[in-house]
Amino acid sequence: MKVSVLVRSVEEADWSLLWPLLHEMDKTDAERAVRQRVHSIMRRPDFFMPVAVTHGELVGYAWAQDYGPHIRTGKSIVRLHDLFVVPRRRKHGAGSALFGAVKNWARERGAKWLQWQATTSAMPFYRRLELTPHAAEDPEHPFFEIEFD
Description:
Layout: E1 6-9, H1 15-25, H2 31-42, E2 47-48, E3 50-54, E4 57-69, E5 76-85, H3 94-108, E6 111-117, H4 123-128, E7 143-147
Parallel strand pairs: 5-6
Antiparallel strand pairs: 1-3, 2-4, 3-4, 4-5, 6-7
């Protein structure tokens, strides 16, 4: 069952709610160091970090980066680094809303490609979005790419 999901850019006041999500995503550095990086990212226009809120609870986040123009084509490449929704809130629309926000941000920046690697456990989510990975060298982390017109 889908619930109402608000997606917005992360704010400094979100830190106490964001840190547990970052930590649950795994492989985090010390909290202070992560906080400094997140606050730096918030101020940079080449990064986008939306959060998903349902019923006043921060339930997910995404993190994308505009890598700028490709050396040969001059077209921008956006890389999706993270997309995470707390397990108990999955399959209710937050992941789709976050992914849609990243796609829109990439398009608005004039990106030609949106690229990311997923985990095999995330494959059912991407299949529901009707996305198929490219043949990958690393079968544990399938590679995805969307090309915009």
